[in-house]
TrEMBL record:
One of its GO terms (biological process) is peptidoglycan turnover. It catalyses: Hydrolysis of terminal non-reducing N-acetyl-D-hexosamine residues in N-acetyl-beta-D-hexosaminides. Residues 1-22 form the signal peptide. This is beta-N-acetylhexosaminidase. It comes from Kribbella pratensis. Keywords: Glycosidase, Hydrolase, Signal. The lineage of its organism: Bacteria, Bacillati, Actinomycetota, Actinomycetes, Propionibacteriales. The keyword Hydrolase applies. It comes from the Bacteria. Belongs to the glycosyl hydrolase 3 family. Coiled coil: none annotated. Its EC number is 3.2.1.52. Residues 418-585 form the Glycoside hydrolase family 3 C-terminal domain.
Length: 849
């Protein structure tokens, strides 16, 4: 239940009756009057308390926690607020503050009650909900992909809508301030602390999208937005959590690079700005970090930029602000520099009493404290916090994580995925079922998205520091495709000190199997691996980003993201591996199919010995969705074994199979099966229907054959994204008799004519003729020859063009609804590894669903 203004003030009156806060103060008064009345009645202790924003441990206001007792001397979050008259609280996951929306909302109401009871002033409750890599409130709250992903979309509209939704959801659970957006310009690819939190390395793009985010948070979402980290943390090579970064920008460089986003934020009405614990000698030669710098905070931010909102420090527990001064001195110098709010001092009691003592001794005037308190109280009144400090628990589920909000987050993620390279022409994947190894950093979300599309996902989560055992396990995993995700793999100083992510990726690439490399955080990772033929960047590992990645992989959407930063080479940072703005795309309306034809013959290689494992390995290497096989002997061995070889191959490869015999090798024998020879089909798609059609042939078992109908023209019907695909596989006349081929073409056309016009047709097989042979002309009227359409295909001794003009062995032909994207004969393999003395032909096809 949301308490009314009258109930709020009545509670304050009952609690602080006879103290400094008047029960008759009306929150309906003008901001100036309300602030004036409150300040006139506040004690110095209450004023100083308003300057502090601290954390407290516990999921409810009344939860006793020994960590609070150790840090504050009192047990519960409510007691912490009351003891120090806090102006604000910040929520973290590790403080047990953000379990779920209902818990957060109840905690917020409980803390507001404690604050109003103590001082009559509501709390400013904040958190770092930048989205992407910095998130405090997880699902079911809507998860957006973060700053650099927004930069990849180039869309101010998306930036504003993300801010609006985030703001509304935070406000619904009682969080009144978001310490976002990040306004830093990440011009240093080795920046260990900003990276993808930044929108871009381009100041203009950062400025445009930061201004849009501010409007989304504040005007639409009705929460306080905090631009950070002033005067600009984008060119640091040191993490200010652990050291003090020094920015070497000249004044001119700072004005050109770092300043524009903060100027844009101020013009957009930003209500709060967070300082950076960085030293910028060009702005202040004293060596003091910006948080403690009067020339930067007062001289530039207040006077030059005319910002009169609330200035808050970054955490005072960070080493970047503690290197030069003690914890009692830091808050004093921050206030003297122009800071209004002190965030998370290491020793809250020490810091609080240090400020009180400084005012009592005259070092800091009470007027200076009043200046900051006035800004803080004005902000609380102007944002409606004074009139409405409590949230309505019944409305939380109606606002947080709604389907509409999720849809918008997905729409933004869909436009951020960036395709850097696809030299292997893997994308888009066909919709056929396949086994995909998903490994690297946090692969679960992507695996879920791939499984929903019919893939069998094998998940190997190796984290940011894979062990050698996990690397070996991933490399040994058998799959049709591997997708490896990386997170700051470039960072061998902190994240991955032994470069194990780099080792994992390189080991997977070295297998020669199809591998897709995806940095799910910093795009700079790609410069630290061996060249990966297929590479994308998502800038985020959130569920929407992984769903967007799956959509791109399967061609459901085209990749439209453009790099918001330049990716330099590892060897020479002055050289661009990928320039700013790079991003490939493809026609998302095309559904891709890979079809192969392979005459596996009665022998294998030149040793003339069939080897099931060798054949399976050769077929797997084709990575095709559909494979037509000729000269298939389904037994291949002595009569006593009677192995169904095609079924065995299908089982090894995880494919569906069909077989159409042409004739039996063996004469009839009572109680004995007959050894069969014919054509076969292996398919990733389930087979809806199969049929063995008859076609004119010359019998190989007749010493004086005459043309006659005979079986061996296999048809398999598949469903591909709602379209019926008819795949025909045949072993045509190997005797190179033109008259027989003419009859076979006529038979083929009759069979094809039985299909519906809107159905897709593919014919695979082999025959001994050139594509230009006149008896084949009717076939090409109906179908397109993949070699001819591809134009650049090279053959070999057992493929067309061959040594003998009539030695055309394997072909893939397609109907008018299909387009040939590429056709080739894979590279030769050593004879000992060859599955056949023929070579396969493989074609990438596409159709529009």
């Amino acid at each position: 239940m949301e308490l009314t203004r009258r109930q709020t003030l009545g509670l304050a009156a009952a609690t602080v009756a006879g103290s400094t806060v008047a029960a008759t103060t009306s929150a309906d008064a003008t901001p100036d009057r309300w602030v004036r009345d409150m300040m006139r009645r506040m004690t110095l202790e209450q004023k100083v308390g308003q300057l502090f924003v601290c954390y407290a441990y516990g999921p409810t206001a009344g939860t006793a926690d020994a960590r609070n007792t150790s840090l504050y001397g009192v047990a519960t979050p409510a007691e912490v607020v009351a003891k120090f008259n806090l102006g604000g609280i910040i929520y973290f996951t590790w403080t047990d503050s953000t379990k779920d929306p209902q818990q957060i909302a109840r905690l917020s109401n409980g803390l507001q009650e404690a604050s109003i009871a103590a001082t009559g002033i509501p709390l400013q409750i904040g958190t770092d909900q930048e989205h992407g890599s910095v998130v405090r409130v997880g699902p079911p709250a809507t998860q957006f992909p973060g700053g650099m992903a927004l930069g990849a979309t180039r869309s101010a509209a998306y930036a504003r809508s993300a801010g609006a939704i985030a703001g509304r959801e935070l406000k619904a659970i009682g969080i009144t301030t978001d310490f976002a957006p990040d306004a830093d310009v990440n011009v240093n690819p080795l920046n260990p602390v900003i990276g993808v939190r930044s929108i871009s390395s381009d100041p203009t793009l950062v400025a445009e999208l930061v201004a849009a985010q501010v409007k989304g948070y504040q005007r639409d979402g009705r929460v306080v937005s905090t631009a950070k980290h002033f005067p600009g943390h984008g060119d640091t090579a040191t993490d200010s959590h652990t050291g003090i970064p020094v920015i070497g920008h000249t004044r001119e460089e700072w004005t050109r690079i770092d300043l524009p986003p903060f100027q844009a934020a101020i013009r957009a009405g930003i209500q709060s700005i967070m300082t950076a614990h960085i030293v910028v000698p060009a702005l202040d030669p004293s060596g003091d970090p910006a948080t403690l710098s009067g020339p930067i905070l007062t001289g530039i931010l207040r006077e030059q930029l005319e910002f009169d909102g609330v200035v808050i420090t970054d955490s005072l527990g960070m080493q970047g602000v503690r290197d030069k001064y003690g914890d009692a001195e830091i808050p004093l110098r921050a206030i003297e520099a122009g800071v209004d709010q002190l965030l998370m001092p290491v020793d809250p009691g020490l810091a609080y009493n240090s400020v009180l003592d400084a005012v009592r001794s005259g070092r800091i005037s009470e007027a200076r404290i009043d200046e900051s308190v006035r800004r803080i109280l004005t902000l609380k009144h102007e944002t409606g916090l004074v009139d409405h400090p409590y949230v309505d628990l019944a409305r939380v589920a109606k606002i947080v994580g709604t389907p509409a909000n999720y849809a918008e987050a997905q729409r933004i993620a869909d436009h951020s995925t960036t395709l850097l390279r696809d030299d292997a022409a893997l994308l888009p994947l066909s919709p056929a079922p396949r086994t995909i190894l998903v490994t690297g950093y946090s692969p679960a979300n992507l695996a879920t998205a791939l499984q929903s599309r019919g893939a069998t996902a094998v998940v190997k989560d190796t984290g940011t520091t894979p062990t050698d055992a996990k690397i070996a396990d991933a490399v040994a995993t058998v799959a049709d495709l591997t997708v490896v995700l990386t997170n700051k793999a470039w960072d061998t100083e902190v994240t991955d000190k032994q470069a194990k992510q780099q080792k994992l990726v390189n080991a997977l690439l070295a297998t020669g199997r199809p591998v897709i490399v995806v940095p799910v955080r910093d795009p700079y990772d790609v410069a630290y691996f061996d060249p990966a033929p297929t590479t994308l960047v998502t800038y985020s590992s959130t569920a929407p980003s992984m769903e967007a990645l799956a959509k791109v992989l399967y061609g459901e959407i085209a990749p439209t993201g453009k790099l918001p930063v330049e990716i330099p080479t590892k060897a020479d940072p002055t050289q661009a591996m990928y320039p700013f703005g790079h991003g490939l795309t493809f026609d998302a309306q095309q559904t891709r199919l890979t079809v192969a034809s392979y005459n596996i013959h009665a022998g294998a290689g030149e040793d003339n010995v069939f080897d099931l494992d060798r054949t399976a390995a050769a077929l797997k290497a084709l990575d095709a969705d559909v494979i037509g096989l000729q000269e298939v002997d389904v037994h291949w061995d002595a009569r006593s074994q009677w192995l169904d070889t095609l079924a065995e191959l299908a089982t090894k490869l995880g494919l569906h199979s069909a077989f159409a015999p042409i004739y039996d090798f063996d004469p009839p024998a009572a109680g004995q099966p007959r050894r069969q020879y014919g054509v076969g089909l292996l398919s990733r798609f389930p087979l809806i229907r199969t049929e063995n059609h008859s076609i004119t042939r010359l019998s190989t078992q007749d010493p004086n054959p005459v043309p006659a109908p005979a079986p061996g023209f296999l048809e398999a019907e598949l469903d591909v994204r709602g379209r019926r695909l008819h795949v025909y596989c045949t072993h045509l006349d190997y005797r190179a008799d033109p008259s027989v081929r003419q009859l076979q073409v006529a038979d083929t056309l009759k069979i094809l004519a039985q299909d519906r016009k809107k159905d897709l047709q593919v014919l695979v097989g082999d025959f001994n003729a050139e594509a230009s042979a006149p008896e084949l002309a009717g076939l090409w009227t109906r179908l397109t020859d993949a070699w001819t359409a591809a134009g650049s295909t090279t053959g070999g001794p057992y493929t067309y063009p061959a040594v003998a003009a009539t030695k055309r062995i394997d072909f893939v032909t397609v109907g008018t609804s299909l387009k040939v994207l590429r056709a080739e004969v894979p590279a030769e393999v050593p004879v000992a590894e060859a599955a056949s003395d023929h070579r396969p032909m493989i074609a990438d096809l596409a159709f529009r669903p």
